[in-house]
Design a protein that fits this description.
The protein starts with a strand and ends with a helix. Helices cover 47% and strands 6% of the residues. α14 crosses α16. The protein has 19 helices and five strands. The protein has a five-stranded parallel β-sheet with strand order 3-2-1-4-5, with helices on both faces. The chain is mainly alpha-helical. The structure holds flavin-adenine dinucleotide. Flavin-adenine dinucleotide binds next to α9, α11, α14 and α16.
Length: 471
Protein backbone atom coordinates (compact mmCIF):
# COMPACT_ATOMS: atom_id res chain seq x y z
CA UNK A 1 0.00 0.00 0.00
CA UNK A 2 1.55 3.34 -1.02
CA UNK A 3 1.15 6.26 1.37
CA UNK A 4 1.51 9.90 0.28
CA UNK A 5 1.73 13.06 2.37
CA UNK A 6 0.02 16.22 1.11
CA UNK A 7 1.47 19.27 2.84
CA UNK A 8 -1.18 22.04 2.85
CA UNK A 9 0.05 25.64 3.11
CA UNK A 10 -1.56 28.50 1.15
CA UNK A 11 -3.92 26.13 -0.67
CA UNK A 12 -6.60 25.35 1.90
CA UNK A 13 -9.04 23.75 -0.53
CA UNK A 14 -9.81 20.39 -2.11
CA UNK A 15 -10.80 21.55 -5.61
CA UNK A 16 -8.28 22.67 -8.24
CA UNK A 17 -5.54 21.46 -5.96
CA UNK A 18 -2.78 19.89 -8.10
CA UNK A 19 -0.76 18.47 -5.17
CA UNK A 20 -3.80 16.71 -3.72
CA UNK A 21 -4.91 15.45 -7.11
CA UNK A 22 -1.44 14.07 -7.94
CA UNK A 23 -1.34 12.28 -4.58
CA UNK A 24 -4.75 10.75 -5.26
CA UNK A 25 -3.49 9.48 -8.62
CA UNK A 26 -0.34 7.78 -7.38
CA UNK A 27 -1.00 6.80 -3.75
CA UNK A 28 -3.45 4.33 -2.22
CA UNK A 29 -3.78 6.41 0.93
CA UNK A 30 -3.15 10.07 1.76
CA UNK A 31 -2.09 11.91 4.90
CA UNK A 32 -3.11 15.58 4.68
CA UNK A 33 -0.88 17.71 6.92
CA UNK A 34 -0.78 21.33 8.03
CA UNK A 35 2.28 22.54 9.92
CA UNK A 36 2.25 25.78 11.90
CA UNK A 37 5.92 26.69 11.66
CA UNK A 38 5.50 30.28 12.86
CA UNK A 39 7.79 29.79 15.82
CA UNK A 40 10.63 28.32 13.78
CA UNK A 41 10.04 30.74 10.90
CA UNK A 42 10.50 34.01 12.78
CA UNK A 43 11.29 36.01 9.64
CA UNK A 44 7.88 35.41 8.09
CA UNK A 45 5.41 35.48 10.97
CA UNK A 46 1.67 35.62 10.32
CA UNK A 47 -0.11 38.67 11.67
CA UNK A 48 -2.72 38.38 14.40
CA UNK A 49 -5.74 38.91 12.11
CA UNK A 50 -4.42 36.37 9.61
CA UNK A 51 -3.91 33.82 12.38
CA UNK A 52 -7.56 34.21 13.35
CA UNK A 53 -8.65 33.66 9.74
CA UNK A 54 -6.31 30.67 9.46
CA UNK A 55 -7.95 29.04 12.49
CA UNK A 56 -11.36 29.15 10.81
CA UNK A 57 -10.00 28.16 7.42
CA UNK A 58 -8.31 25.07 8.87
CA UNK A 59 -11.56 24.20 10.63
CA UNK A 60 -13.38 24.32 7.29
CA UNK A 61 -10.68 22.21 5.65
CA UNK A 62 -11.05 19.67 8.47
CA UNK A 63 -14.80 19.50 7.75
CA UNK A 64 -14.28 19.05 4.02
CA UNK A 65 -11.70 16.31 4.57
CA UNK A 66 -13.95 14.58 7.11
CA UNK A 67 -16.68 14.39 4.45
CA UNK A 68 -14.22 12.27 2.43
CA UNK A 69 -13.41 10.08 5.44
CA UNK A 70 -10.07 11.83 5.90
CA UNK A 71 -8.43 13.74 8.77
CA UNK A 72 -6.19 16.80 8.69
CA UNK A 73 -3.03 16.18 10.72
CA UNK A 74 -2.05 19.36 12.57
CA UNK A 75 1.45 19.93 13.85
CA UNK A 76 3.58 22.76 15.14
CA UNK A 77 7.35 23.18 14.68
CA UNK A 78 9.99 23.05 11.99
CA UNK A 79 8.48 21.87 8.70
CA UNK A 80 11.46 19.68 7.81
CA UNK A 81 11.55 17.95 11.20
CA UNK A 82 7.80 17.43 11.19
CA UNK A 83 7.65 16.00 7.68
CA UNK A 84 10.64 13.72 8.42
CA UNK A 85 8.90 12.51 11.56
CA UNK A 86 5.64 11.78 9.74
CA UNK A 87 7.48 9.95 6.95
CA UNK A 88 9.26 7.82 9.54
CA UNK A 89 6.22 6.97 11.62
CA UNK A 90 3.82 6.36 8.69
CA UNK A 91 6.04 4.72 6.11
CA UNK A 92 5.00 7.31 3.50
CA UNK A 93 7.02 7.16 0.30
CA UNK A 94 5.81 10.30 -1.47
CA UNK A 95 5.37 13.95 -0.48
CA UNK A 96 3.35 16.52 -2.43
CA UNK A 97 2.92 20.26 -2.00
CA UNK A 98 1.94 23.37 -3.93
CA UNK A 99 4.64 25.99 -4.35
CA UNK A 100 5.06 29.30 -2.51
CA UNK A 101 7.04 32.18 -3.98
CA UNK A 102 8.29 34.43 -1.17
CA UNK A 103 12.05 34.31 -0.57
CA UNK A 104 11.92 32.65 2.85
CA UNK A 105 9.51 29.88 1.85
CA UNK A 106 11.35 29.32 -1.44
CA UNK A 107 14.64 28.85 0.37
CA UNK A 108 13.10 26.63 3.04
CA UNK A 109 11.26 24.46 0.49
CA UNK A 110 14.41 23.97 -1.59
CA UNK A 111 16.22 22.75 1.52
CA UNK A 112 13.35 20.45 2.48
CA UNK A 113 13.15 19.04 -1.04
CA UNK A 114 16.90 18.34 -1.09
CA UNK A 115 16.82 16.60 2.28
CA UNK A 116 13.63 14.58 1.80
CA UNK A 117 14.49 13.51 -1.74
CA UNK A 118 17.12 11.18 -0.31
CA UNK A 119 14.30 9.30 1.49
CA UNK A 120 11.11 9.71 -0.56
CA UNK A 121 9.81 11.13 -3.82
CA UNK A 122 8.95 14.85 -3.56
CA UNK A 123 6.77 16.70 -6.07
CA UNK A 124 5.65 20.32 -6.07
CA UNK A 125 3.06 22.13 -8.20
CA UNK A 126 1.62 25.54 -9.04
CA UNK A 127 -1.76 26.10 -7.42
CA UNK A 128 -1.89 29.79 -6.65
CA UNK A 129 -0.89 31.63 -9.83
CA UNK A 130 -1.99 31.74 -13.44
CA UNK A 131 1.65 31.74 -14.49
CA UNK A 132 4.72 31.08 -12.42
CA UNK A 133 7.12 34.03 -12.21
CA UNK A 134 9.77 32.47 -14.44
CA UNK A 135 7.28 31.82 -17.25
CA UNK A 136 6.76 35.48 -18.16
CA UNK A 137 9.92 37.32 -19.25
CA UNK A 138 10.90 40.05 -21.70
CA UNK A 139 12.58 39.11 -25.00
CA UNK A 140 15.99 39.58 -23.32
CA UNK A 141 14.90 37.17 -20.52
CA UNK A 142 14.79 39.91 -17.89
CA UNK A 143 11.65 40.41 -15.75
CA UNK A 144 9.07 43.10 -16.45
CA UNK A 145 8.81 46.06 -14.09
CA UNK A 146 5.78 47.64 -15.75
CA UNK A 147 2.40 46.04 -15.18
CA UNK A 148 0.78 46.84 -18.56
CA UNK A 149 3.61 45.19 -20.53
CA UNK A 150 3.63 42.23 -18.15
CA UNK A 151 -0.13 41.71 -18.31
CA UNK A 152 -0.16 42.08 -22.09
CA UNK A 153 2.20 39.13 -22.38
CA UNK A 154 0.19 37.13 -19.85
CA UNK A 155 -2.96 37.73 -21.89
CA UNK A 156 -1.16 36.77 -25.08
CA UNK A 157 -0.25 33.43 -23.53
CA UNK A 158 -3.88 32.94 -22.44
CA UNK A 159 -5.27 32.95 -18.91
CA UNK A 160 -8.13 30.46 -19.05
CA UNK A 161 -6.26 27.32 -18.03
CA UNK A 162 -8.03 24.03 -17.42
CA UNK A 163 -8.87 23.32 -13.80
CA UNK A 164 -7.30 20.40 -11.97
CA UNK A 165 -9.79 17.55 -11.60
CA UNK A 166 -11.13 16.78 -8.13
CA UNK A 167 -9.08 14.25 -6.15
CA UNK A 168 -9.91 10.67 -7.06
CA UNK A 169 -9.99 9.76 -3.36
CA UNK A 170 -8.57 11.02 -0.05
CA UNK A 171 -8.40 7.64 1.67
CA UNK A 172 -6.54 7.76 4.97
CA UNK A 173 -4.05 5.04 5.93
CA UNK A 174 -5.25 2.59 8.62
CA UNK A 175 -3.02 4.24 11.24
CA UNK A 176 -2.80 8.03 11.25
CA UNK A 177 0.14 9.98 12.67
CA UNK A 178 -0.34 11.93 15.87
CA UNK A 179 -2.19 15.26 15.44
CA UNK A 180 -2.64 18.31 17.63
CA UNK A 181 -6.12 19.70 18.19
CA UNK A 182 -6.84 22.91 16.28
CA UNK A 183 -7.04 24.89 19.54
CA UNK A 184 -3.54 23.68 20.47
CA UNK A 185 -2.15 25.78 17.62
CA UNK A 186 -3.33 28.86 19.55
CA UNK A 187 -4.10 30.78 16.39
CA UNK A 188 -6.87 32.76 18.09
CA UNK A 189 -5.92 35.58 20.46
CA UNK A 190 -6.21 35.04 24.18
CA UNK A 191 -8.34 37.58 26.03
CA UNK A 192 -9.55 40.06 24.90
CA UNK A 193 -11.17 38.07 22.08
CA UNK A 194 -11.20 40.96 19.54
CA UNK A 195 -11.34 38.40 16.74
CA UNK A 196 -14.98 37.49 17.47
CA UNK A 197 -16.36 40.84 16.33
CA UNK A 198 -13.98 40.96 13.37
CA UNK A 199 -14.86 37.50 12.10
CA UNK A 200 -18.58 38.33 12.10
CA UNK A 201 -17.87 40.19 8.88
CA UNK A 202 -16.67 37.04 7.13
CA UNK A 203 -17.61 33.55 6.03
CA UNK A 204 -14.44 31.48 5.81
CA UNK A 205 -13.45 28.44 3.76
CA UNK A 206 -13.63 26.95 0.30
CA UNK A 207 -17.42 26.76 0.04
CA UNK A 208 -17.82 30.34 1.30
CA UNK A 209 -15.18 31.56 -1.19
CA UNK A 210 -17.12 30.07 -4.10
CA UNK A 211 -20.38 31.57 -2.82
CA UNK A 212 -18.69 34.97 -2.53
CA UNK A 213 -17.32 34.72 -6.07
CA UNK A 214 -20.73 33.72 -7.44
CA UNK A 215 -22.46 36.51 -5.52
CA UNK A 216 -20.01 39.11 -6.78
CA UNK A 217 -20.25 37.94 -10.40
CA UNK A 218 -24.03 38.02 -10.36
CA UNK A 219 -24.53 41.14 -8.23
CA UNK A 220 -21.37 43.28 -8.36
CA UNK A 221 -19.26 42.86 -11.44
CA UNK A 222 -21.64 44.64 -13.82
CA UNK A 223 -20.48 48.03 -12.51
CA UNK A 224 -17.05 47.03 -11.27
CA UNK A 225 -15.03 49.50 -13.38
CA UNK A 226 -16.79 52.44 -11.73
CA UNK A 227 -17.85 51.11 -8.35
CA UNK A 228 -14.52 49.53 -7.47
CA UNK A 229 -13.28 52.95 -6.38
CA UNK A 230 -16.24 53.65 -4.09
CA UNK A 231 -15.71 52.56 -0.49
CA UNK A 232 -19.29 53.55 0.34
CA UNK A 233 -20.64 50.86 -2.03
CA UNK A 234 -20.12 47.11 -2.16
CA UNK A 235 -18.24 47.48 -5.42
CA UNK A 236 -15.48 44.87 -5.13
CA UNK A 237 -15.41 41.12 -4.62
CA UNK A 238 -13.82 40.91 -1.15
CA UNK A 239 -12.13 37.73 -2.30
CA UNK A 240 -8.64 38.76 -1.15
CA UNK A 241 -8.46 36.70 2.07
CA UNK A 242 -9.90 33.66 0.28
CA UNK A 243 -7.24 34.04 -2.41
CA UNK A 244 -4.48 34.58 0.12
CA UNK A 245 -5.26 31.36 1.98
CA UNK A 246 -5.91 29.48 -1.23
CA UNK A 247 -9.55 28.71 -0.46
CA UNK A 248 -10.07 29.72 -4.07
CA UNK A 249 -7.58 29.74 -6.94
CA UNK A 250 -7.09 32.44 -9.58
CA UNK A 251 -7.68 29.74 -12.20
CA UNK A 252 -11.14 29.15 -10.71
CA UNK A 253 -11.84 32.89 -10.87
CA UNK A 254 -10.83 33.11 -14.52
CA UNK A 255 -12.85 30.01 -15.29
CA UNK A 256 -15.91 31.76 -13.83
CA UNK A 257 -15.25 35.15 -15.48
CA UNK A 258 -14.81 33.43 -18.84
CA UNK A 259 -18.21 31.82 -18.40
CA UNK A 260 -19.83 35.17 -17.54
CA UNK A 261 -18.16 36.87 -20.52
CA UNK A 262 -20.00 34.46 -22.79
CA UNK A 263 -23.35 34.58 -20.97
CA UNK A 264 -23.24 38.35 -20.26
CA UNK A 265 -21.23 39.97 -23.07
CA UNK A 266 -22.51 43.35 -21.86
CA UNK A 267 -20.36 42.91 -18.71
CA UNK A 268 -17.19 42.15 -20.70
CA UNK A 269 -15.36 45.41 -19.95
CA UNK A 270 -16.02 45.05 -16.22
CA UNK A 271 -15.03 41.39 -16.23
CA UNK A 272 -11.77 42.26 -18.04
CA UNK A 273 -11.06 44.96 -15.48
CA UNK A 274 -11.70 42.49 -12.66
CA UNK A 275 -9.37 39.96 -14.30
CA UNK A 276 -6.66 42.60 -14.59
CA UNK A 277 -6.91 43.24 -10.84
CA UNK A 278 -6.32 39.54 -10.28
CA UNK A 279 -3.38 40.24 -12.61
CA UNK A 280 -2.02 42.82 -10.15
CA UNK A 281 -1.96 40.08 -7.55
CA UNK A 282 0.05 37.92 -9.95
CA UNK A 283 2.38 40.84 -10.62
CA UNK A 284 3.05 41.21 -6.88
CA UNK A 285 4.16 37.55 -6.67
CA UNK A 286 6.17 38.01 -9.84
CA UNK A 287 8.08 40.99 -8.45
CA UNK A 288 8.63 39.32 -5.10
CA UNK A 289 10.15 36.30 -6.83
CA UNK A 290 12.41 38.30 -9.16
CA UNK A 291 13.32 41.01 -6.63
CA UNK A 292 13.27 39.19 -3.26
CA UNK A 293 15.08 42.02 -1.50
CA UNK A 294 11.97 44.21 -1.90
CA UNK A 295 10.27 42.70 1.15
CA UNK A 296 12.27 45.20 3.17
CA UNK A 297 14.15 47.36 0.67
CA UNK A 298 12.83 49.79 -1.95
CA UNK A 299 13.00 48.46 -5.50
CA UNK A 300 14.14 51.93 -6.59
CA UNK A 301 17.51 52.09 -4.86
CA UNK A 302 17.50 55.91 -4.77
CA UNK A 303 14.92 55.61 -1.99
CA UNK A 304 17.52 54.09 0.33
CA UNK A 305 18.63 57.69 0.96
CA UNK A 306 15.09 59.05 1.39
CA UNK A 307 14.98 61.37 4.43
CA UNK A 308 12.23 59.63 6.38
CA UNK A 309 11.57 60.94 9.88
CA UNK A 310 13.18 58.90 12.65
CA UNK A 311 11.14 56.54 14.88
CA UNK A 312 11.44 58.86 17.88
CA UNK A 313 10.10 61.74 15.77
CA UNK A 314 7.18 59.84 14.28
CA UNK A 315 6.14 57.40 17.05
CA UNK A 316 3.17 59.49 18.25
CA UNK A 317 1.94 60.20 14.71
CA UNK A 318 2.20 56.53 13.76
CA UNK A 319 0.02 55.66 16.72
CA UNK A 320 -2.63 58.20 15.72
CA UNK A 321 -2.61 56.82 12.17
CA UNK A 322 -2.97 53.25 13.47
CA UNK A 323 -5.82 54.23 15.79
CA UNK A 324 -7.66 56.28 13.16
CA UNK A 325 -7.42 59.59 14.99
CA UNK A 326 -5.49 61.72 12.47
CA UNK A 327 -8.33 64.22 12.14
CA UNK A 328 -8.73 63.42 8.41
CA UNK A 329 -12.09 61.65 8.12
CA UNK A 330 -11.43 59.31 5.18
CA UNK A 331 -8.06 58.26 6.62
CA UNK A 332 -9.58 57.60 10.02
CA UNK A 333 -12.54 55.73 8.52
CA UNK A 334 -10.14 53.46 6.64
CA UNK A 335 -7.96 52.74 9.65
CA UNK A 336 -11.02 51.99 11.77
CA UNK A 337 -12.53 49.77 9.06
CA UNK A 338 -9.26 47.86 9.16
CA UNK A 339 -9.35 47.53 12.94
CA UNK A 340 -12.99 46.46 13.06
CA UNK A 341 -13.19 44.16 10.04
CA UNK A 342 -9.60 43.13 9.22
CA UNK A 343 -9.99 44.58 5.70
CA UNK A 344 -9.86 47.97 4.02
CA UNK A 345 -11.12 49.13 0.65
CA UNK A 346 -8.37 49.41 -2.00
CA UNK A 347 -8.94 53.11 -2.75
CA UNK A 348 -8.72 53.87 0.96
CA UNK A 349 -5.60 51.71 1.33
CA UNK A 350 -3.97 53.99 -1.23
CA UNK A 351 -5.18 57.12 0.59
CA UNK A 352 -3.99 56.03 4.04
CA UNK A 353 -0.68 54.76 2.64
CA UNK A 354 -0.04 58.03 0.80
CA UNK A 355 -0.94 59.94 3.94
CA UNK A 356 1.50 57.92 6.07
CA UNK A 357 4.44 57.98 3.68
CA UNK A 358 4.04 61.45 2.19
CA UNK A 359 2.12 63.69 4.60
CA UNK A 360 3.62 62.13 7.72
CA UNK A 361 6.96 61.13 6.14
CA UNK A 362 6.88 57.78 7.96
CA UNK A 363 8.69 54.91 6.16
CA UNK A 364 6.46 52.59 4.15
CA UNK A 365 7.84 49.63 6.09
CA UNK A 366 6.05 50.87 9.24
CA UNK A 367 2.72 50.91 7.39
CA UNK A 368 3.40 47.55 5.75
CA UNK A 369 4.07 46.01 9.17
CA UNK A 370 0.82 47.39 10.60
CA UNK A 371 -1.19 46.11 7.64
CA UNK A 372 0.54 42.72 7.94
CA UNK A 373 -0.62 42.43 11.53
CA UNK A 374 -4.18 43.69 11.08
CA UNK A 375 -5.38 42.59 7.61
CA UNK A 376 -7.11 39.23 7.22
CA UNK A 377 -5.83 39.28 3.63
CA UNK A 378 -2.26 40.28 4.63
CA UNK A 379 -0.14 39.00 1.80
CA UNK A 380 3.56 39.71 1.57
CA UNK A 381 3.51 40.10 -2.23
CA UNK A 382 0.45 42.36 -2.54
CA UNK A 383 1.26 44.31 0.60
CA UNK A 384 4.82 45.15 -0.42
CA UNK A 385 3.59 45.96 -3.93
CA UNK A 386 0.86 48.28 -2.59
CA UNK A 387 3.15 50.07 -0.15
CA UNK A 388 6.07 50.50 -2.53
CA UNK A 389 3.71 51.62 -5.28
CA UNK A 390 2.14 54.28 -3.07
CA UNK A 391 5.43 55.44 -1.60
CA UNK A 392 6.75 55.86 -5.15
CA UNK A 393 9.68 53.46 -4.79
CA UNK A 394 8.26 50.27 -6.34
CA UNK A 395 7.73 48.87 -9.82
CA UNK A 396 5.38 50.93 -11.96
CA UNK A 397 5.04 53.18 -8.93
CA UNK A 398 2.81 56.21 -8.49
CA UNK A 399 4.79 59.30 -9.56
CA UNK A 400 6.42 61.11 -6.66
CA UNK A 401 4.19 64.19 -6.97
CA UNK A 402 1.04 62.07 -6.63
CA UNK A 403 0.28 62.93 -3.05
CA UNK A 404 -3.35 62.05 -2.46
CA UNK A 405 -5.32 64.88 -0.93
CA UNK A 406 -7.51 63.09 1.63
CA UNK A 407 -10.19 65.78 1.47
CA UNK A 408 -10.71 65.75 -2.30
CA UNK A 409 -10.31 61.97 -2.42
CA UNK A 410 -13.06 61.65 0.19
CA UNK A 411 -15.33 64.07 -1.67
CA UNK A 412 -14.84 62.19 -4.94
CA UNK A 413 -15.09 58.59 -3.78
CA UNK A 414 -17.38 58.89 -0.74
CA UNK A 415 -19.59 61.71 -2.02
CA UNK A 416 -22.30 61.50 0.64
CA UNK A 417 -19.91 60.68 3.45
CA UNK A 418 -21.66 57.34 4.04
CA UNK A 419 -18.36 55.47 4.44
CA UNK A 420 -17.00 58.03 6.89
CA UNK A 421 -20.23 57.98 8.89
CA UNK A 422 -20.08 54.17 9.15
CA UNK A 423 -16.66 54.12 10.75
CA UNK A 424 -16.36 57.58 12.34
CA UNK A 425 -19.65 57.90 14.20
CA UNK A 426 -18.49 61.16 15.85
CA UNK A 427 -19.09 62.82 12.47
CA UNK A 428 -22.56 61.37 11.86
CA UNK A 429 -24.29 64.69 12.43
CA UNK A 430 -21.94 66.69 10.24
CA UNK A 431 -23.20 68.23 7.01
CA UNK A 432 -22.34 65.91 4.06
CA UNK A 433 -20.86 68.88 2.20
CA UNK A 434 -18.06 69.30 4.70
CA UNK A 435 -17.82 65.81 6.15
CA UNK A 436 -14.42 65.18 4.54
CA UNK A 437 -12.82 68.39 5.74
CA UNK A 438 -10.82 68.24 8.97
CA UNK A 439 -12.47 69.68 12.06
CA UNK A 440 -11.84 73.39 12.55
CA UNK A 441 -10.87 74.96 15.83
CA UNK A 442 -14.06 75.89 17.61
CA UNK A 443 -16.27 73.17 16.10
CA UNK A 444 -17.99 71.06 18.71
CA UNK A 445 -17.32 67.50 17.62
CA UNK A 446 -15.64 64.88 19.76
CA UNK A 447 -13.26 64.37 16.86
CA UNK A 448 -9.53 65.18 16.78
CA UNK A 449 -8.04 68.23 15.13
CA UNK A 450 -5.88 67.45 12.06
CA UNK A 451 -2.48 65.94 12.78
CA UNK A 452 -0.75 67.95 9.99
CA UNK A 453 -1.27 70.91 7.72
CA UNK A 454 -1.87 69.40 4.27
CA UNK A 455 -0.13 72.10 2.23
CA UNK A 456 2.93 72.28 4.49
CA UNK A 457 3.29 68.48 4.69
CA UNK A 458 2.96 68.20 0.91
CA UNK A 459 5.72 70.78 0.45
CA UNK A 460 7.88 68.88 2.96
CA UNK A 461 7.38 65.62 0.99
CA UNK A 462 8.27 67.29 -2.32
CA UNK A 463 11.42 68.71 -0.73
CA UNK A 464 12.31 65.20 0.47
CA UNK A 465 11.95 63.88 -3.08
CA UNK A 466 14.18 66.74 -4.23
CA UNK A 467 16.78 65.65 -1.69
CA UNK A 468 17.15 62.27 -3.40
CA UNK A 469 16.99 63.90 -6.84
CA UNK A 470 13.67 62.39 -7.89
CA UNK A 471 11.86 64.68 -10.24
P1 LIG B 1 -11.20 43.20 -5.97
O1 LIG B 1 -11.21 44.58 -6.50
O2 LIG B 1 -12.44 42.45 -6.00
O3 LIG B 1 -10.06 42.44 -6.78
C1 LIG B 1 -10.05 41.01 -6.94
C2 LIG B 1 -8.72 40.46 -6.46
O4 LIG B 1 -7.65 41.03 -7.22
C3 LIG B 1 -8.41 40.81 -5.01
O5 LIG B 1 -9.03 39.91 -4.13
C4 LIG B 1 -6.90 40.72 -5.00
O6 LIG B 1 -6.44 39.40 -4.86
C5 LIG B 1 -6.52 41.23 -6.37
N1 LIG B 1 -6.21 42.66 -6.33
C6 LIG B 1 -7.06 43.69 -6.49
N2 LIG B 1 -6.40 44.87 -6.43
C7 LIG B 1 -5.11 44.56 -6.21
C8 LIG B 1 -3.92 45.34 -6.05
N3 LIG B 1 -3.94 46.68 -6.13
N4 LIG B 1 -2.76 44.71 -5.81
C9 LIG B 1 -2.70 43.34 -5.75
N5 LIG B 1 -3.80 42.56 -5.90
C10 LIG B 1 -4.98 43.16 -6.13
N6 LIG B 1 -4.03 42.96 -1.21
C11 LIG B 1 -3.92 41.80 -0.55
O7 LIG B 1 -4.51 40.79 -0.96
N7 LIG B 1 -3.14 41.71 0.58
C12 LIG B 1 -2.47 42.79 1.09
O8 LIG B 1 -1.77 42.65 2.10
C13 LIG B 1 -2.61 44.03 0.41
N8 LIG B 1 -2.01 45.15 0.90
C14 LIG B 1 -2.16 46.34 0.23
C15 LIG B 1 -1.52 47.49 0.72
C16 LIG B 1 -1.65 48.70 0.07
C17 LIG B 1 -0.96 49.93 0.61
C18 LIG B 1 -2.44 48.79 -1.10
C19 LIG B 1 -2.60 50.11 -1.81
C20 LIG B 1 -3.06 47.67 -1.59
C21 LIG B 1 -2.93 46.43 -0.96
N9 LIG B 1 -3.57 45.27 -1.44
C22 LIG B 1 -3.42 44.08 -0.76
C23 LIG B 1 -4.28 45.27 -2.74
C24 LIG B 1 -5.78 45.56 -2.69
O9 LIG B 1 -6.05 46.66 -1.88
C25 LIG B 1 -6.60 44.36 -2.19
O10 LIG B 1 -6.21 43.19 -2.86
C26 LIG B 1 -8.10 44.58 -2.45
O11 LIG B 1 -8.52 45.74 -1.79
C27 LIG B 1 -8.89 43.39 -1.99
O12 LIG B 1 -10.25 43.64 -2.09
P2 LIG B 1 -11.15 42.81 -3.09
O13 LIG B 1 -10.88 41.35 -2.94
O14 LIG B 1 -12.54 43.26 -2.90
O15 LIG B 1 -10.57 43.28 -4.49
Amino acid sequence: MSIGIVWFRADLRLSDNPALYAASQSCDTIIPVFIDDTHSNTLNPLGAASRAWLHHSLQQLQHSLAQHGSTLILRQGSALETLSDIIKSSGATQVFWNRLYDPISTQRDTQIKQTLSTLVSVQSFNSSLLFEPWQILKADKSPYKVFTAYWKQVLQQGINHPLTPNPLHINPPPVLPHSLKLNNLQLLPSKPRWDEAMMQHWQVGEAAAHQQLEYFLTHGVAHYSINRDRPDLIGTSKLSPHLHFGELSPRQIIHATTHYKSTHPEWSADLLKFESEVGWREFGYYLLYHFPQTTTEPLDQRFKQFPWRSPSEYAADLKRWQQGTTGFPIVDAGMRQLWQTGWMHNRVRMIVASFLTKNLLIPWQAGEAWFRDTLVDADLASNVLGWQWTAGCGADAAPYFRIFNPITQGEKFDPDGAYVKTYVPELKGRNAKVIHAPRQLGEHYAYPLPIVDLAASRARALAAFDAIKIK
